[in-house]
Amino acid sequence: MIDAETALQLGMINRIVPLAELRDKTLRFAKRMALISPEALTQTKLAINRGADAMGFTEAMHAGLDVVAPLYAAKTDVGVRFTEIRQKEGPRGTAAPA
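Predicted structure:
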Protein backbone atom coordinates (compact mmCIF):
# COMPACT_ATOMS: atom_id res chain seq x y z
CA MET A 1 0.00 0.00 0.00
CA ILE A 2 1.18 3.51 -0.78
CA ASP A 3 -0.15 6.93 0.12
CA ALA A 4 -1.83 9.27 -2.34
CA GLU A 5 1.18 11.59 -2.62
CA THR A 6 3.44 8.70 -3.64
CA ALA A 7 0.86 7.44 -6.13
CA LEU A 8 0.73 10.92 -7.66
CA GLN A 9 4.53 11.11 -7.90
CA LEU A 10 4.65 7.68 -9.55
CA GLY A 11 2.04 8.70 -12.13
CA MET A 12 -0.49 6.14 -10.90
CA ILE A 13 -3.05 8.90 -10.37
CA ASN A 14 -3.36 12.32 -11.93
CA ARG A 15 -4.67 14.32 -8.96
CA ILE A 16 -5.47 14.25 -5.29
CA VAL A 17 -8.88 15.54 -4.29
CA PRO A 18 -9.80 16.60 -0.75
CA LEU A 19 -12.44 14.33 0.75
CA ALA A 20 -14.91 17.20 0.99
CA GLU A 21 -14.71 17.66 -2.82
CA LEU A 22 -14.54 13.98 -3.80
CA ARG A 23 -18.24 13.44 -4.59
CA ASP A 24 -18.53 16.62 -6.66
CA LYS A 25 -15.30 15.99 -8.58
CA THR A 26 -16.26 12.35 -9.21
CA LEU A 27 -19.69 13.30 -10.57
CA ARG A 28 -18.16 15.98 -12.79
CA PHE A 29 -15.70 13.45 -14.20
CA ALA A 30 -18.46 10.88 -14.75
CA LYS A 31 -20.54 13.46 -16.64
CA ARG A 32 -17.56 14.19 -18.90
CA MET A 33 -17.04 10.48 -19.54
CA ALA A 34 -20.74 10.07 -20.36
CA LEU A 35 -20.29 12.47 -23.29
CA ILE A 36 -17.83 10.11 -24.97
CA SER A 37 -19.26 7.46 -27.24
CA PRO A 38 -19.31 3.91 -25.84
CA GLU A 39 -17.35 2.75 -28.89
CA ALA A 40 -14.54 5.23 -28.22
CA LEU A 41 -14.41 4.26 -24.54
CA THR A 42 -14.34 0.57 -25.43
CA GLN A 43 -11.49 1.02 -27.89
CA THR A 44 -9.54 3.19 -25.44
CA LYS A 45 -9.93 0.57 -22.71
CA LEU A 46 -8.79 -2.11 -25.16
CA ALA A 47 -5.71 -0.08 -26.08
CA ILE A 48 -4.84 0.51 -22.42
CA ASN A 49 -5.28 -3.16 -21.57
CA ARG A 50 -3.16 -4.27 -24.53
CA GLY A 51 -0.46 -1.83 -23.50
CA ALA A 52 -0.51 -3.21 -19.95
CA ASP A 53 -0.35 -6.74 -21.34
CA ALA A 54 2.63 -5.80 -23.53
CA MET A 55 4.43 -4.56 -20.41
CA GLY A 56 3.75 -7.87 -18.68
CA PHE A 57 1.10 -6.66 -16.25
CA THR A 58 -1.31 -9.54 -16.78
CA GLU A 59 1.47 -12.09 -16.52
CA ALA A 60 2.69 -10.48 -13.30
CA MET A 61 -0.84 -10.59 -11.85
CA HIS A 62 -1.16 -14.27 -12.71
CA ALA A 63 2.23 -15.03 -11.17
CA GLY A 64 1.19 -13.27 -7.98
CA LEU A 65 -2.07 -15.17 -7.86
CA ASP A 66 -0.24 -18.45 -8.39
CA VAL A 67 1.66 -17.77 -5.18
CA VAL A 68 -1.10 -16.26 -3.05
CA ALA A 69 -4.20 -18.23 -4.12
CA PRO A 70 -3.13 -21.50 -2.47
CA LEU A 71 -2.60 -19.64 0.80
CA TYR A 72 -6.17 -18.34 0.70
CA ALA A 73 -7.58 -21.79 -0.01
CA ALA A 74 -5.25 -23.93 2.07
CA LYS A 75 -6.42 -25.59 5.24
CA THR A 76 -2.83 -26.29 6.23
CA ASP A 77 -1.30 -24.74 9.36
CA VAL A 78 0.46 -22.17 7.17
CA GLY A 79 -2.74 -21.34 5.27
CA VAL A 80 -4.76 -21.00 8.46
CA ARG A 81 -2.10 -18.76 10.03
CA PHE A 82 -1.92 -16.67 6.84
CA THR A 83 -5.69 -16.13 6.99
CA GLU A 84 -5.54 -15.16 10.67
CA ILE A 85 -2.81 -12.60 10.04
CA ARG A 86 -4.54 -11.23 6.93
CA GLN A 87 -7.86 -10.82 8.74
CA LYS A 88 -6.22 -9.14 11.73
CA GLU A 89 -3.61 -6.99 10.02
CA GLY A 90 -4.46 -6.93 6.30
CA PRO A 91 -6.61 -4.56 4.26
CA ARG A 92 -10.28 -4.39 5.21
CA GLY A 93 -12.67 -6.52 3.16
CA THR A 94 -10.23 -9.38 2.56
CA ALA A 95 -11.85 -12.08 4.64
CA ALA A 96 -11.29 -15.50 3.16
CA PRO A 97 -14.31 -17.26 1.66
CA ALA A 98 -15.85 -19.86 3.97
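Summary: Residues 37-98 form one domain.
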